[in-house]
Amino acid sequence: MAKFRTKKSLGQHLLISEGVIKKIVDYIDVNNEDVIVEIGVGTGQLTEEILRRNPKKLYGIEIDERVYPIVEERLKEYSNFILIKKDYFDVNLREFYEDDKIKIVGNLPYNVASLILIDTAFYIDIIRFNIFMIQKEVAEKLVAKPKTKSYSFMSVFLQTFFNTKYLMSVPPRFFSPPPKVVSAVVKLSPKEKLPIPFDKIKDYKKFVSDMFSHRRKMLKSKINPNILEMANIKPTARAEELSVEDFIKLFNVYFVNINALNIQ
Question: Hey, what domains does the chain have and what are their CATH numbers?
Fold first, then answer.
């Protein structure tokens, strides 16, 4: 353990505080029927605490081959642990879905955390909830409200599908090496009813992203004013002023009248 050196290129910061680890696993609320997927096992601190609480299965996804022998030795007594030696983006989470929805957890690498968060929306139908450690600045976007500095594409896209909750802040001293920023633990719970058809999530992602490009521009410069009128949205409004419900309504009108759109 002492010899392991984290890689800056992988955004690695190992969580070393036992108290914080236990608190995160308390939030996960592990029971013996759970199938849990951990993204970014690292050297296994969080993994081991989850396993102590006896989930049905824990799949640990890890890209860094240097930690494989460390993790395999550390967790060899746990038959319910399966190490997935891949990049997260080369994994299909549906392979881990059995009879019940999965819990997705992890101390996410800072350099790809936003991409992973967004990707989980495409698994919304098989997720019980996500609990992630991420950069505090990103966490604030997940819970941001309209007309605030943190409100962004990510705020709207993820709040469309998840109820987002900021659970706690985690100072740099609880990591090795200490990051230059404060971290935060967040919970994303899928909404009971999907507001966007599952097969339109990709289209919705592009739509919201387009609306937030050049965020200071009025919506009438991006979208046909007739569409805005049908959705009861002011043409002089900006993306940052719209609620999540406004975006859903606008997207639904947009899809019915797709040929009238001006988006490039």
Answer: 8-190 (3.40.50.150), 198-260 (1.10.8.100)
